Amino acid sequence: MVEQCEKNGQNVTTDGEGDEGHETTMGGHHEHGKLFGYVKVGTLLVVWLIFTGFLMSKHEKELTPRQLSVPEGAYRTYILPEPSPGSRIGINLKGAFLSDQHHNNTSTYVSVNLQLLYLPSNNSNASFFPDHDVKYTENITNVWMVPIPSTLEAIDQMDEITRKHVFDIGPVNHQKVTSGKAVVRVRMSSNLDGDFPTKFTYDPTPMDTEVGVIYAAIVLLGLYVLIIWEIVHRTFAAIIASTLAIGVLAAMNERPSMPKLISWIDVETLLLLFGMMILVAILSETGIFDYLAVYAYQVTNGKVWPLINCLCIFTAILSSFLDNVTTVLLMTPVTIRLCEVMELNPVPVLMSMVIYSNVGGTLTPVGDPPNVIIASNSYIAKNGVNFATFTLHMAIPIFF
């Protein structure tokens, strides 16, 4: 008995030591995971603070617009007041211009190109040079053809739009400008039967869109990595990505002003999502989703395929007027319980509901955030696309 008790005691002691070792191992993993969490959050905070500081160190980009009038049958010229830091020069025009889609619908254009004026002396700070003071003139860029309406009456009825173009004068010509041997002049003309007014803006540091697209893709992929692998909370990831995006714009000398940032916020979409969340929260408290699932079971008498189709149709109808992500999340628990009762695999059923939710969400302008952005666009709204028109045109492909 003593030996047995001793053996039992040893066993107990051994088991106890084993439990303590197991707890120590689990504690080590927990401490390691906690330390890793601190490191990753700290790293993101450091990156965020660096870009925030870089953003605060850059000034907002402000361009001075100038009112110009391109005369009939003559050239309108403007000498750039200062050389650009690089060989790329941006020209922004605002007026009654047509978009590139209407390029073939008109034969009237405003032609814009850059010239290099060679000077006899280092007097490149003047805004006007008499012809006798210029050695010779050289066209250094291709002509930018901007389509405009063909008549003055059509110009009076057109809305103002901004057209942008970036000219590259090359490193050789840029060296001539920076050394004071020449200056850059903008030459504009038109074949309109009358003077064409426009607002001219000179951008000495235009953004390279190709490089900007690469930076934007990196920021977007980084945001998806933070959200998909749940490295940090989604809200914190969105704040980091938005700050990085503005910091990258500031690094490319394109720091937006505060009114510009406010104009980027789609208030209509945010308010619609906010209202949808309130409606879904109220409806979820009433038990309407549980009732619909039970009602679908009663209507179909528990038959598998009719039940699945009925659940999918209910999900599509709800998603047409509510947030489809929240609708799926609220329908999922009831669907899983029904599948357990009927001994079905819930994964194919839930996948079908997700597909129907996405399809049903595209039916109305309020069914999905992209639909809200499309329907609230000023150009689309001016062409008579309202709630009924949008739903009617989308109902045909949604039905198929």
TrEMBL record:
<dbReference type="GO" id="GO:0055085">
    <property type="term" value="P:transmembrane transport"/>
</dbReference>
<protein>
    <recommendedName>
        <fullName>Citrate transporter-like domain-containing protein</fullName>
    </recommendedName>
</protein>
<dbReference type="InterPro" id="IPR051475">
    <property type="entry name" value="Diverse_Ion_Transporter"/>
</dbReference>
<keyword id="KW-0812">Transmembrane</keyword>
<feature type="domain" description="Citrate transporter-like">
    <location>
        <begin position="224"/>
        <end position="398"/>
    </location>
</feature>
<dbReference type="InterPro" id="IPR004680">
    <property type="entry name" value="Cit_transptr-like_dom"/>
</dbReference>
<dbReference type="GO" id="GO:0016020">
    <property type="term" value="C:membrane"/>
</dbReference>
<feature type="transmembrane region" description="Helical">
    <location>
        <begin position="211"/>
        <end position="229"/>
    </location>
</feature>
<keyword id="KW-1133">Transmembrane helix</keyword>
<feature type="transmembrane region" description="Helical">
    <location>
        <begin position="35"/>
        <end position="56"/>
    </location>
</feature>
<feature type="compositionally biased region" description="Basic and acidic residues">
    <location>
        <begin position="19"/>
        <end position="28"/>
    </location>
</feature>
<dbReference type="Pfam" id="PF03600">
    <property type="entry name" value="CitMHS"/>
</dbReference>
<keyword id="KW-0813">Transport</keyword>
<feature type="region of interest" description="Disordered">
    <location>
        <begin position="1"/>
        <end position="28"/>
    </location>
</feature>
<keyword id="KW-0472">Membrane</keyword>
<feature type="transmembrane region" description="Helical">
    <location>
        <begin position="235"/>
        <end position="252"/>
    </location>
</feature>
<feature type="transmembrane region" description="Helical">
    <location>
        <begin position="264"/>
        <end position="284"/>
    </location>
</feature>
<feature type="transmembrane region" description="Helical">
    <location>
        <begin position="304"/>
        <end position="322"/>
    </location>
</feature>
